[in-house]
Elongation factor 1-beta' (Fopius arisanus), 222 residues
Amino acid sequence: MAIDDLKTPKGLKDLDTYLADRSYIEGYQATQADVAVYEALGKTPSPANPHVLRWYNHIKSHELKKLPGEKKAPSVLGGGAPGAPAAKSAEKDDDDDEVDLFGSDEEEDAEAERIREERLKAYAEKKAKKPALIAKSSIIIDVKPWDDETDLKAMEKAVRSIEMDGLVWGVSKLVPVGYGIKKLQIVCVVEDDKVSVDELVEKIQDFEEHVQSADIAAFNKI
């Protein structure tokens, strides 16, 4: 199906369901797959789709051209370059159980559309009266020093000196990696709408005197 179906209420609703327990379209960091869907939306989604709105604002904060990967949505979302028709499988044509998040309902009449719009409006009004849930993630970051002579206490102090709205540092430990070298493994909790994981990793790697590299060891939504 065409990715342009994202502009329909049904497409947005299905995308909102898909992003309910995800921070990104694919994997644990922003990629060109996010850019493909972001550009297909064309405009800021309404609060009626809170998960899409959260994701959209987060991706908007990135420098889109520098994100890695190929600019296409994954196959589970009817992947393809924006505006291009998605591949059609003859074996799946008659499979009524297959979920198509970007599919449009050609048999939907004006009355069904009116009813759905009314329900979406009622849901948005009800949602607006409730305090918004704050999406958070727990992240374990591996911070590797240059060698066994690196001052690990100074390295940890530098990492913990990073302050970002929505970022809270947790416990840490030193883990042997070989040849007498130990890496710093540190936990943090972030608010997904406020903290870019990519930016956080870059800030850690900016401490070039102590840090050789920083990598995400684990990423879990809370």
